[in-house]
Design a protein that fits this description.
The chain has 7 helices and 10 strands. Helix 3 packs across helix 4, helix 3 runs parallel beside helix 5 and helix 5 packs parallel to helix 6. The chain binds adenosine-5'-triphosphate (ATP) and magnesium ion.
């Protein structure tokens, strides 16, 4: 489902070239749940962003659901990403001027869904926020905002969900709710789920744990779950 081959990412900052990812290869089959762990600065967010086509690698390739995205023009990557990927950020990234319902409806409308509002309402109910649909992001707690973000990411039922520290700004009980939501989507809909986390306990929820260090895969093994 996701195939990363010999991925290298180098950036030049302050006149020096740094290697952020160094020849990373990784195959994630459909429906798998994988956790990516590693110290701060090890390249986790960079790898996830590349998998989503949010950035371009220095070299190497990324194949998503059979399509090599690395060489595609920007417009095609954007369209493909919309079909294939739901992305969840640590800091929620909701649109502040839209209500919870409107935020969830955005990808549905972009997809031309005539029943966008109805479907957005169902999604909000599924994440336990039926009575918060008219609230703006500032009127929601962190955990509620992240549940809206999960509903939005899953709105078009993408086959792949990528989540970058989705519980990083939440307390452990609220974080647990968000993880349970993601696990439920992976289990009930068979979405491939890649979860970046600092938290070893959360990583143990995945089938497989990939550890990055200094831009390389240090270990890749089944979890103890
Ligand atoms: N645009 C950029 N320009 C220069 N260096 C960058 C850029 N983006 C990331 N880096 C560097 O690349 C390295 C990896 O960053 P990345 O954000 O992928 O780490 P991470 O594993 O997600 O860390 P964290 O756990 O703190 O989120 C870091 O050393 C970072 O400083
Ligand atoms: Mg990061």
């Amino acid at each position: 489902m996701i195939s990363v081959k010999n991925l290298t990412m180098r950036l030049t900052a302050g006149g020096r070239t740094i290697t952020i990812l160094d020849n990373v290869s990784l195959d994630i089959p459909a429906k798998q749940m994988v956790a990516i762990v590693g110290p701060s600065g090890s390249g986790k967010s960079t790898l996830l962003g590349l998998m989503a086509g949010l950035d371009r690698p220095t070299s190497g390739s990324i194949i998503l659901d059979g399509m090599e995205i690395t060489g595609l023009p920007e417009r095609d990557i954007t369209r493909y990403r919309r079909q294939k990927i739901g992305y969840i950020f640590q800091s929620f990234h909701l649109i502040p001027t839209l209500t919870a319902l409107e935020n969830v409806a955005v990808p549905l409308e972009l997809n031309g869904d005539a029943a966008a509002d109805e479907r957005a309402n169902e999604l909000l109910a599924a994440v336990g926020l039926r009575d918060r649909s008219g609230h703006y992001p500032v009127q929601l707690s962190g955990g509620e905002q992240q549940r809206v973000a999960v509903a939005r990411a899953f709105a078009c039922r993408p086959p792949i969900l990528l989540a970058d520290e989705p519980t990083g700004n939440l307390d452990s009980a609220t974080g647990r709710q968000v993880i349970d939501l993601l696990l439920g989507i992976n289990r009930d809909h068979g979405s491939t789920l890649v979860l970046v986390t600092h938290d070893q306990a959360l990583a143990e929820n995945a089938e497989r744990i990939v550890s990055l260090r200094d831009g390389r895969i240090e270990s890749d093994k089944p979890s103890g779950r």
